Amino acid sequence: MRTTGFGDLLRRHRREAGLSQERLAELAGLSVDAIAALERGRRRAPRPHTLRLLGDALQLDAPGRAELGAAARRDGDSPRSTVRPPPVPANQLIGRSTDLTHTGRLLGERATRLLTLTGPGGVGKTQLALALAGGIGHKFDDGVGWAPLAPIADPAAVASAIAAAIGLHPLDGARLVDEIAELIGHRKLLMVLDNCEHVVTDAAVVCGRLLESCPNLSVLTTSRELLRVPGESVYVVPPLALPELEQQPDASPAVRLFVDRATARGNAPGEQIEQVARVVRRLEGMPLAIELAAARTNVLTVEELATELETSFGILAGGASTAGPRQQSLLGAIGWSYDLLTVPERELFAELSVFVGGWTLNAAAAVLSGTTTPGPRERAETLDLTGRLVDKSLIRVSREGGIGRYDMLAVIREFAADRLAASGRAEQVARNHAAFYLALAEEAETNLRGANQGAWLDRLEGELDNLRAAINWSLRTESSAEAIRLAGGLWLFCYLRGHYAEGSDWLERALALVDHQPELQSAKAKALLGAGMLAFLQCEYDVATTRLEAALAQYEELNDTAGTALVMQRLGSVARERGDYVTAESLHCRSYDLFESLGDRAGMAWAHNQLGFVAWLRGDLEIATRRCRRARDSFRTLGDGEGLAWSLISLGTIAQYGGELGEAEELLQESLALSQRLGYREGVAWSLNQLGIVERRRGLTDRAVHLLDESLAEHRDLGDRWRSASVLEELATVAQQRGRTEYAAFLLGAADGIREVIGAPIPEIEKADREATRQAIEQVLDRRAFRAAWSAGRATPLSAVADGYPGPWAAPDRSTRL
Prior knowledge:
Layout: H1 6-16, H2 21-28, H3 32-40, H4 48-58, H5 62-76, H6 97-108, E1 114-118, H7 125-136, E2 144-148, H8 158-165, H9 176-184, E3 189-194, H10 200-213, E4 217-223, E5 232-236, H11 253-264, H12 273-282, H13 287-295, H14 302-312, H15 325-339, H16 343-351, H17 361-369, H18 376-391, E6 396-398, E7 405-407, H19 410-423, H20 426-445, H21 453-462, H22 464-476, H23 480-496, H24 500-513, H25 521-537, H26 541-557, H27 561-577, H28 581-598, H29 601-617, H30 621-638, H31 641-657, H32 661-678, H33 681-697, H34 701-718, H35 721-737, H36 741-758, H37 767-780, H38 783-795, H39 798-802
Parallel strand pairs: 1-4, 1-5, 2-3, 3-4
Antiparallel strand pairs: 6-7
Helix pairs in contact: 1-3, 2-3, 4-5, 6-7, 8-9, 9-10, 11-12, 11-13, 12-14, 13-15, 16-18, 16-19, 17-18, 17-20, 20-22, 20-23, 22-23, 23-24, 23-25, 24-25, 25-26, 25-27, 26-27, 27-28, 27-29, 28-29, 29-30, 29-31, 30-31, 31-32, 31-33, 32-33, 33-34, 33-35, 34-35, 35-36, 35-37, 36-37, 36-38
């Protein structure tokens, strides 16, 4: 039986009690975000006091409280990361009990730490892996991580997919495998890598290194090719058992699968079981082939289907001469479906393989027509052809959010891609694909500051795999214009949704392609601006300054006043974080003047906001209040969600430093809710940070720790070391107030080490609290103990600090370290 995680258990109790998250938060005296974070697994399990608050609010009896506490301890023993669980299978697994028993014994009883499920495409490796992971997942205390590799085009991205599966947002691509190994450590975790065959070499290297470094890690892979890693055990997934002559045909798993799939389409075979047996024997028990054949019952009787298969499969010896019969049977099943298509259907089927992670009707019409804005005729033609392919089970459709979206099974997409390559049109289709997503990125860019900001951010996030494919194509083919425009058009999205490192990589690689091309000067200026901004957000101030100054020169040469003003604003932000408030204020004032000369209300609002930010950081709360209120009012009028969130954060911060804690909480809760709706991670992180300070000033240190822990995790994942240092100093204050003096010194040391590395001082407004904390610590600890804890903190990586460094000053149970 699978062990229930704390988040799932809390959600179940809340629903049984008939409580919303808001009502539970109110009854427990916690924030709504804390409840949501616990239920979603975004933060570690709560401390004992919080457990008591939750138990009281939920009116749990003694067994219920014990169960909740046990789940909290299990989750609390694991380092903080959100493991991506396997997807829930869409259909019941049929005929795999023997396979599950055998593979479950191998992996679940640690007879092997690396098990590869191999076999031809369509034999059911992924479905068996899902069922296996679900059956033995309870034996892995830290869960099961699912890394789908099918969407990956670049073998070097294998490690990134594994990192995403365990909730790691890496900053240093060169050390990515080491970072993964450090995060897994001694955790008892099962990692599933699905569809490795196209990246088998890189998958083998990464698996080998992780298995060597992580003694309790087990790995399950599905691949048509063995990884050939030392210690690898292999299980060849067989086709489904066929009906034997002496048994009832409907007892055969292959027959049951056909009947199940045909019945689901409203075409129950009835008395035609013997004919079904003919079909599945001809298909040699291959699950995908059976499903494709069952789909044909919408136009053929089972007897007609069986007869057709007997004749048309004579052309299915199209696989390689060295391929086994099962591989040829699968290719035959897909090839047969392909042969039934009309020429226009075949062309669209092949061209749709260019999409990664699904597509919309408009995107398909654009690729088919070769225009980024297909007209009614192109859309109608594409709709008709798409409908035919949906009916023939070659593509799938989902209707979430009121928009139809389509995709292919990985094996079918591979077959379609082969057909596209054979046609000689692959490069042109990829160019059409990139052109469509370039147009989408540039259209989105113009909407990422207005009232529809949230919807456009969601749209780009949903198309992220296609955007990656488009930009990778432009970089691979050295299509400099497309590359620089795509990367430059997406940097604001990357900022708002927290894709800092990936966006930086795109921009730097695109900039390397562009030399002295006058027609790309404007696009290059934008890309330089984006590269500087993303470097700044990751606290790479020297790189940011270099890029931004280059952008400034470009915009001035172009006589682009708006671009010049925007770069000055970003340079002012760099100066602000480096503690040069005079330069920052000067740059923001110059930016304001330029925006005012253009009548740019949005630019003027941002200048007011930035000037208010500088003012409160240096401690001038009166000026900061005036500036930020003007910005807030403008942002509300303009419908700029990001700007409004920032002005609310600043006003909430000003209120908390001014002692108006009720007002501060109201403003910061509004900014938190808005940032969460937008998916604006920096806004979420800042709001949680300041709400934590509000609760600490009220003396509610339990709630403060919840909020500050969440803020630190967000800032750390984003790569914002400047703010991470401030949150660590605030956590040190909480630790000191709760008598954890050595741990407080450790946290101050960690913050000091971060500030030294990035070259950014403590903000002026924060110095008094930090100095008071240090003095309180020094009154309790002797010099030697203080220096030991301080030095240990300076030497500890931020990732270890964020996950609760288990030094001698930390509690054995990290959940109560503060």
